[in-house]
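Example 3.
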Amino acid sequence: MSQVREYVERRELLTNLVLRELRSRYKRSTLGWTWSLLNPLSSVLIYWAVFGVFLEVDPPVGDPSGQDNFVLFLLCALIPWNFFSNGVMQSIESLVVNAGLIRKVYFPRELLVASTVGGLLVTFLIELGVVIVILLAAGNMVLPWIPVILVLVALQTVMVVGIGLLLSAANVYFRDVRHFITLIMPVLFYSTPIVYPITTVPETWRIAGRSIPLRDIYGFNPLVRLVTAYRDAMYSLRMPAWDTLAYIAVWAIGLLLLGQWVFNRLDRRLAEEV
Amino acid sequence: MSAAITVDHVTKRYRLYHERNQSVKAAIMRGRRARYDEFLALDDVSFEIREGIAFGLIGENGSGKSTMLKCMARILRTDAGSITTRGKLSALLELGAGFHPELSGRENVYLNGAILGLSRREIDQRFDAIVDFSGIEQFIDAPVKNYSSGMYVRLGFAVAINVDPEILLIDEVLAVGDQEFQNKCTDKIASMRREGRTIVVVSHALPSVRALCDEVALLEHGHLIRTGPAEDVIDHYLTEILSIDPAELGIPRRATGEIHLDGVEIIGADGRPRPEPTIGDAVTLRFHFTARERVVEPVFGMSFTSSDGVLVTGCNTMTSGIRMVVEPGPGHLDLEIPRLLVAPGRYHITGTVYDREHTTPIHEVGDLHAFHVAEGTLRTSGITSLGGTWRADA
């Protein structure tokens, strides 16, 4: 409880740290903030060329939107994925990068993780805005679904902060954490239906005469549910299933509590170890 | 007076790693993360810092004094015991910690202020004072990576000092910047002290600790050796531990105490007490003292300091050629002032008595008396008046 109060008291610091992230991110680059849109644009082009054109992945027809454009199908999942991936990778480094600050000033160190994620959240929201404009131009009336999208963004942010707290503190003690997560990220990317529809994952898999319910196992991954929910709201224009939302919420809050708990334990020697 | 900081049986251990490895593989191979020895930086240390005093932490390198300061600042957590602080705390451990090189001075003031716990509105209010104190108005919108190290430190100090803390922790940062800026810092700290704030200093510079601090704690290898009045502890440290004659370092020896200054009485031209004189008045400052034994030719001295820490004037009986013998018992000494030509405001009187060579103090009181000079017919700006009269018919 006291932790929550401290967060509220230091919310201005959080704002300032987020501003620092945003202001310093594209300092001295000519294109500046355009980069934050060029990066996802380039990945969209690559995945569209490889999966949409060469491999001819057929996007499912949105129900009830009737949409069947691969690029839109891709965008609705890739932009949230980028927020997840950048959020986790950058918050892992957030304590080590700010070692000078941690050694010399006292403030709640969680704010370094929160502000890193906060800075990326701002970029994510801008990108989502652009995606919504593109969807509207393509005839997807996504406006009524914006509240649902914002709920998903909030749950995802909580999830990323939780993972960030957990891994950033661990990374101070074991610098391998970052390398390990760099290794894990592509695995997570391809085990989430971003560049392919979930229907391409076989329902069951037969190994040595036994049948393994592959699709169900696959569905345990909260990112699968998260991406599916984003796609429901933005691509297909339908309400995500309630159990999907509840599943995401349980994961998000669980990860936040776990992250905070681990962070509190590792915070004790942070200034010495960092 | 209550305690501003209570240090209660504090123990702090550091881990000294034999092989500093931070890899999971090594940890799994060995079944634990790394081998390390524990090093006791602080071992069951307890003391109290009273509210409103200047407190020094001294000791050799590795004595644990900086660790203690970091524990007070909550940067490090203690392994046992507790530190309780009362009031808003600001630590000057590294000036400009948290400045982002690519951001401008202005943006960094807001960022650093927020890190030190100020709200946006509070920084708005103090922004001009901060820039003014740092003296870098012209460069405030330039990125701080283009600042000289002096400018960087000035801005850092200006932000930290304007946090308006009730407790200020300082770690030898004052040994930076040019002489002028150092004086500015010293003055600012002196004025914060007069405002009744608590100041904790870690320093190797014993003369400045002696001049600034009321009380001192001496640490050695993590143990508290002694705590008490600054002069006693520093004297003990020098003579017992370092075996140095304090005079060699230019540190006045411990006051010998044959004469005790009791107070100052301000007397008007009519011979009656005049506790609040008016500018331009003829007054007599009567220094009351009590002598324990007969003292031959002691040197009495006094100085005026304005409420913002500016030394207005000082004088002593030696430069005036007064030679006197003080007999045991109470006595007094008068300083006659024909016209009190200091600007209206509040002043502090420092009183000193030294031996006949003016090397060993007999008694020194930093704040022997405080009084107020009232506004009168004589008008002036600044800190003093020439007492002159304008004539137009010349």
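Chain A touches chain B through 30 residues (CB under 8 Å). The two ends of chain A are 27 Å apart (CA to CA).
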